[in-house]
Structures are given as structure tokens and as C-alpha cells.
Amino acid sequence: MYPEIMVIPMREELTRAGIAETRTAEEVDTAVAQPGTTLVIVNSICGCAAGKMRPGVRLALANANNQPDHKIAVFAGQDRAATERARSYFEGNPPSSPAVAILRDGKLVYLMQRYIIEQATAQQIAGELIRAFDEFCAKTAA
Known about the structure:
With about 140 residues, this protein is an alpha/beta fold. About 45% of the residues lie in helices and about 20% in strands. The chain contains 6 helices and 5 strands.
């Protein structure tokens, strides 16, 4: 674990974008239990999170017509119980830091893992997330 003072700016980069910080397993469960779609971000101190994932997420949220109903983040290596709980919703997928997932009513419908993030630019990540938001988060007409 890193000293908390080191990760505060990395947490704030996402909270300033409207993403709620979940630091316990219970907070993750409460957030995921809400109806609708939930963006779940596994934040990390690594370079690909700093230079690609977090900027890509912020770009996507600033430019998407369709967005998840709820947005949460856990911080791998810092908030271990929260991170483990978030990953438990990514059934059948190995742990990945960073990662970006979309859950619909608590079920995984989309997952961008580290190996994808490492090979993409922030702009490519944003474009892919906007595509995923359009596919999985679009509101249907009643």
C-alpha cells in the first residue's frame, strides 16, 4: 500500500468527474444494488491508469450522450476489500488493474481490462467507452 497522501490526487481525478469513491465492500454492494447501469472503475497507481485510463474515462463522461446511471471507483492496492468485492462482480475474468466495467442491475455487461488499456490512447479508450455507453446505457423509450 502506498501512503494515502500519494493517491489522493489519483482519487480526486475521478471524483471531480462525478465518480463516487467506494472504499469498503459494503459501499460497493450498496452502489451495485441500485437499479440500472453502474460504471465500475478499478483505479490504480500505475502509469497506464494515469496516462490512459483516467483521462479516457473523463473524456468519455464529458462527451457521451448516454451515460451509466451510477459511477463508482475502487482503488486497487489501497482499498483491498472494496476492490475484491468489485472484482467479484466480474465473474469469470481475472483480476485487472486498472479496469473499467459496466454492470446492469448488478450483472457484468462490459469489461475493459488492463491489457486493452495498455495498448490504447486516452482518446481510443474514450471512444470505446462512449460506444459501450451507447450500447449498454441508452435509455429506452417507455
